[in-house]
């Protein structure tokens, strides 16, 4: 089971696109074996501060360990999976 947090900035077209891309990537490869929590840094600045978010979008894989972060466009699926150290697809 993968547990992910995606930090975005507002409800912009680019935020919506990255949310859609990450959901599609994990739906297609992991089905129901993941959870995705989307956090808007405008609505939840405390949570962004606690997670030390300096830029958005930021995707954090909290489970399974080790914790991994990806920052930026997140549109390159292979790079996202490699950066999060997810193998075996």
- The name of the CATH topology is Glutaredoxin
Structural class determined from secondary elements: alpha+beta
Overall, the morphology is globular
Radius of gyration: 12 Å
Major sheet characteristics: 4 strands, mixed
- For this structure, what is the CATH homologous superfamily? Glutaredoxin
Strand content: 25-35%
Number of helical segments?
3
CATH architecture: 3-Layer(aba) Sandwich
CATH class: Alpha Beta
- Return the string of H and E elements: EHEHEEH
Binned, the helix content reads 25-40%
Strands of the widest sheet, in order across it, are: 2-1-3-4
Query: How many independent structural domains?
Result: 1
Number of strand elements: 4
Task: Quote the average pLDDT.
Answer: 93
Low-confidence stretches: none
Distance between the termini: 14 Å
């Amino acid at each position: 089971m993968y547990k992910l947090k995606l930090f975005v900035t507002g409800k912009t077209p680019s935020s919506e696109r990255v949310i859609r891309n990450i959901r599609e990537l994990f739906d297609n490869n992991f089905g129901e074996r993941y959870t995705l929590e989307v956090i808007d840094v405008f609505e939840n600045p405390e949570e962004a501060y606690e997670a030390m978010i300096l830029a958005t979008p930021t995707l954090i894989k909290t489970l399974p360990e080790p914790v991994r972060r990806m920052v930026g466009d997140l549109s390159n699926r292979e790079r996202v999976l490699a950066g999060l150290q997810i193998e075996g697809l």
